[in-house]
Amino acid sequence: MNLILFSLEDLKRPLSREDPRAEHILSVLNTEPGQTFDVGQFNGPRGKATLISVNSDSLNLSFIWDMEILSLYPIDLWVSFCRPQTCRRVLQECTSLGVRSITFFYTEKCEPSYRDSRLWSTGEAERLLIRGAEQAFCTQVPELGLDASLQNVLAKRQRQGTSLALDNYESTETLGRRKTPTLPVTLAVGGERGWSSMERHALRDAGFSLVDLGSRILRTETACIAAISILRIQISEGLSHP
Fold first, then answer.
1. From CA 37, how far away is CA 6, in angstroms rounded?
2. SS3 of 14, please?
3. Which residues partner with 73 through β-bridges?
4. Rg for the chain, CA atoms, rounded
5. Fewer CB within a 10 Å sphere, N or C end of the chain?
């Protein structure tokens, strides 16, 4: 991890030696008392921590917060439930890329058992978000949502900004050739078997444009990463050239 994140509650007490962060500080960073390392507060500032002392059961740390908060991109990612390993990659890598929310939902062609994975019930998904933020040297963690269906997600959504759905079969344009999007951007990505005809119809009715990433069929996690990377460039160029 490039940045170690702490909650406000964490800052009120010594860090337990059993905490994985303590192991990282001592065994990976090889930090000695008096040395500093990079830290951040969840959804707050970044800064530096100093290792004051190492006890048998805890580490004593001091903190200085003096760096600006790295903001998230105004991108809301919607993804169909996929194989748990695919979802793990989406959670961590798309957090590193800076999306502001990730919502998983059922689609007609996805396997219902994917929602029953321990990934969603043990706190692992939230830990992957943290790991992705730490990798990106960012304190901001995207909001995570789980929903029953695409129709439910569409019903809750406020129509604003640009709405895009990746689709290799009925897309009308390639994402990389579009003009700068109006913010915020909602990006919907289907599962391993894509969208059903009914879902494409629902997306179009909700104002989504069907776009592709070229002629190659990509894995879900690869498509998410590629599309978000393109959108980040388009958003950055739009902000720098008003």
1. 13
2. coil
3. 99
4. 20
5. C
Number of neighbours of residue 126 by Cβ within 10 angstroms: 13
Task: Report pLDDT for 1.
Answer: 74
CA distance linking residue 207 with residue 51, whole number of Å: 53
C-alpha torsion sign, points 77, 83, 87, 90: negative
For residue 2, the model assigns a pLDDT of: 87
Per-residue confidence (pLDDT) for residue 235, from 0 to 100: 94
What pLDDT score does 114 carry? 93
CATH architecture for residues 4-67? Beta Barrel (2.40)
Class of domain 73-240 (CATH, top level): alpha beta
Q: Is the peptide bond before 45 cis (omega within 30 degrees of 0)?
A: no
CB neighbours of residue 66 within 10 Å: 8
Extract the tokens encoding 144. 């995570």
| pLDDT under 70: residue ranges of the chain | 239-242
pLDDT at 239: 60
Neighbouring CB atoms inside 10 A of 71's CB total 10
Q: Which two tokens stand for residue 227?
A: 């599309």
239: which residues sit within 8 A by CB, 6+ positions away? none
Domain boundaries, the chain: 4-67, 73-240
Residue pair 4/49 in contact by the 8 Å Cβ criterion? yes
Between CA 235 and CA 182 the distance in angstroms is 9
Distance from chain centroid for Cα 203: 22
Q: What is the pLDDT of residues 122-149, one digit of tens each?
A: 999 999 999 999 999 999 999 999 999 9
Only one residue has tokens 């760096």, namely: 67
DSSP code of residue 25 = I
